[in-house]
Amino acid sequence: MACIEARDLRKTFGTTVALDGINLRVEEGRILGIIGPNGAGKTTALNAILGLTSYQGELKVLGHDPWGARNLLMRDVSFIADVAVLPRWIRVSHLLDYVAGVHPRFDRAKAENFLARTTIKRTSKVRELSKGMVAQLHLAVVMAIDARLLVLDEPTLGLDILYRKQFYGCLLNDYFDRSRTIVVTTHQVEEVQDVLTDLMFIDRGRIVLQCSMEEFESRYIEVLVNPGQLAAAHALKPIHERPVFGRTVLLFDGVDRDQLAALGDVRRPSIADLFVAVMSAPSSRCPGTPAPQADEIGAPK
Amino acid sequence: MNTIANGAPEAARVRELRYGGPATLSFYWSVRRELWENRSIYIAPLIVAAVELFGFVISTVGLPERRRAVLLLDPAKTRSAIEAPYDIAAVMLILTAFVVGLFYCLDALYGERRERSILFWKSLPVSDRTTVLSKTSVPLLVLPLVTFTVIVATQVVMMLWTSVLLITHGISPGSTWTYVPLIQNSFVLLYGLAAIALWHAPIYGWALLVSGLVRRATFLWAVLPLIATAVFEKITFNTSHFGELLKDRLLGFAPDAFAFGAHRGVAIDSLIQLTPVRYLSTPGLWLGLLFAAICVVLAIRLRRYRGPL
Fold it and tell me: Nearest CA of chain A to the CA of B273: how many Å?
């Protein structure tokens, strides 16, 4: 069974179209990264999946209709929506008491184990913890819940690099077991590149790119073009071009690797580079001439 | 697939069984959660009780002489004089509970949106109904019980203090214990608290609804429409039915819940003066409860749509 299945998912706020017909199928055991500019509809999509917002279209998460049965769904789904949403007045021990009380799949001993690795004291109140510690605490709670789907919406926003690395490290080493599914949105794309199994770009409520990371690796190739071969490289229709130290880096979609290797140094593109390429130059536009970002993102909503 | 994958749901099911009904359990923990967050629920009554006791202790300077004089009056007056401080203490604490309950309700569905923690609460398998009902139970159940306990404890301390004082001056403390029948008073108090809670339910329901509805200034949104309605009625029709209705909603429980004696004002001397049947057949009570129920149902529906501010 698919973990998440959406057909023609739509959501409008007044005249603003937040989701413009999303079709999505996430199988169990995948780690999907949803990447998009601000206001692209990422959070709205996640909120629909979590039963936090109503929508038009068809949506099934683990067999449930999220909007109709949020509390049932939350037995099998955990989420961290944004950093620092833990109530500031609560004591750490009380937080554990409460979750243990209401969540049948919460393993308190597990949470205590995670917390033992941190400097968080059980008697502290959340408001006394640093932002990084609050994120650690929330992660400890979430990882101790035996959920089938974990949704993370910008879980590391505003944290320093040590906490961010540790966050994803914990998630992969101590939580992910190939039967769970994780959906994550983030702007810190570099940090999740090696974590994801699937990738999705979303812009203005539409999916503009969707592929597995294996596909990503085989389809997209970046070439640091040898100075004399730029024209030959351009003939292969790169989807993006950027200058690096006086040389040109071209990004190709679905061009044979051996063919490209002859033109310069071939390497794996970063998700961030592909993101910029896809967002600034849709396939309809002449490749290699990045359009100004404002055109794309600042369009009237 | 493998043992881990099969074992996990099994273990979860066993845990679920051990926990009993998930809804009742969620409700229990949600109420405890409210007490962790809103410590004023018990701290405010305790502070008021402490102030009352302090004042009472000061007022008992010279009590033995006054008690001798009071005992010479006719029994009804004696009783009034001895009972008065105990009644005042109780009324002040009931008033405190009302204020605490009102402000609690005004923040109940607003605070979680303001501090964004609603995103955390909604990530747990607790329904909006359980959440809102647990919040409703605070002014209707938790606060009356806290008030009852604090009042009885305060009165016991007052009586013990008086007794010690009288005994050290060679007077029998019997007059206090006769004229302040603690057991009977406790029963009257419990009945009164229940009557008040039911009567005020629509006020709390309205406050809860407003706290889930508005984006800021919950108190103003809760109160200004009422004042505006009253003013509109006065100006337009030169009547004040709405104002009367509001006044009745604050204090109107008394004449129906109790049969006051002709000679002793609002004092309750006997359990015969409790009139639960008459109270329960008052239309105002049921109309109020209906209004409260509508508010709570709307608040539950509303919370579904609500996210952080």
Answer: 44
- ipTM for the predicted complex: 0.86
The CATH number linked to A19 is 3.40.50.300
Parallel, antiparallel or unpaired: strands A31-35 and A220-225: unpaired
| Percent of residues in chain B assigned helix, strand, coil, to nearest 5 | 80, 0, 20
Among the candidates A172, A204, A236, a domain finishes at A204
Output DSSP code: residue A125: B
Paired tokens of A93: 């021990």
The number of C-alpha atoms within 13 Å of B120 and in the hemisphere containing its C-beta is 24
DSSP at A299: S
Partner-chain contact A89 B29, CB within 8 Å? no
What is the span of the domain harbouring residue A66? 2-204
**A121 and A223 share one domain:** no
**Per-block average pLDDT, block size 10, for chain A (301 residues)?**
91 91 92 90 92 93 91 91 87 96 93 92 94 90 92 87 87 86 89 90 91 91 88 88 87 89 89 88 44 37 35
Cα separation, A131 vs A154, whole angstroms: 14
What are the Cα distances from residue A20, in Å, to A202, A211, B260?
10, 19, 68
Of A70, A75, A179, the CB nearest to B122: A70
- Chain B contact residues (CB < 8 Å to A): 1, 4-5, 8, 11-12, 15-16, 19, 22, 25-26, 28-30, 32-33, 36-37, 112, 115-117, 119-128, 130, 304-305, 307-308
